[in-house]
Amino acid sequence: MKDTRHLTLGIESSCDETSAAVVADGRTVLSNVIASQVPTHKIFGGVVPEIASRHHLENVNPVIAMALGEAGVTLDDVDLIGVTNGPGLVGALLIGVAAAKTIAFAKDIPLVGVHHIRGHVAANFIADPALEPPFLAFVVSGGHTHIMEIRDYNDAVILGRTRDDAAGEAFDKVARVLGLGYPGGPLIDRAARGGDPHAIEFKRVLLEKDSLDFSFSGTKTGVLNYMNREKALGHTVSVPDVAASFQQSVVDTIVTKADHALEKTGYRTLALAGGVASNSLLRESLAALCEKRGVRFICPPPVLCTDNAAMIACAAYYKAGAPKTPRGGTNFDDLRLDADPNLPL
Ligand code: KG4
Ligand code: ZN
Q1: Does the predicted model carry a pTM greater than 0.90?
Q2: Hey, which residues does 156 pair with through a beta bridge?
Q3: Closest ligand to 144 CA?
Q4: Are residues 151 and 96 in the same domain?
């Protein structure tokens, strides 16, 4: 018998994780399988796009089969397929999009293309079943640092963004300079626990007085210059101190901007999303800011902050218009859906 819930199959392959998930009624995760390629790319110190595409191709069908199996459903139960179609690595995106279109065509299931950043924001709807727009969202990932006004499920405005490096990118580059490895964010997070966050005062770039934009490249270069100077002077560098001081400067910058954005917009809810949302200091510091301001703070568990297909399924459910017409919605894409590495919001 057909499952009576609305089931969305989500597929995500924009970077180095191949993921598939089954989500019921938009917010209940029945399965969320993530095949990470970190061990493969680690030896290169970053994601190698061609290798990522090849692994997505190998992984995509088994990962979808596992997601369906773990959810205890078959494709005959699926009401909607949601797939990330941008932004990201084009060769990587294409694998997920091709898989989604093939299943949609073969099984006659409606299809929706999802913007990766909207997916990250949607992780908050899963984390907090009571969450409804409008609210303020911070998306901090390897490719993006955005302050967003989420006016409605399908109506978002970017209030501020990074003018150079994304926060995660800065974490990854600094980790490389410190010889910590890849991906840098979690390694800096860990190394920082043994260091003094005030040992070195790295730059906090706040830009113009009213701006909600970010700039992290100066802070990153500050770390690089510090390392070169200390080495040239023959000094021994404390990696935990540098990691802790760098992390503190990035977190201070984000918290200052969050304070400013909450003041400016008057929103009473702040949602955090993206890979860097797993950072322990960032979570604690934003939670403290929100408590001080009497604002509700939502932060998904790390498994929903990293790239995953459950968040894509959730975003697809709302994009399709499913809440208004619970058995399906109407806002679908057709088989011309294509991967777009620079997909606009
Ligand atoms: O959202 P995500 O998984 O992929 C993109 O869409 O970019 O984010 C990946 C980024 C990487 O730069 C990674 O180093 C960073 O998130 N990251 C962290 C932590 N965990 C992952 N950054 C700081 N602290 C962490 N604990
Ligand atoms: Zn992401």
Answers
A1: yes
A2: 150
A3: 1
A4: no
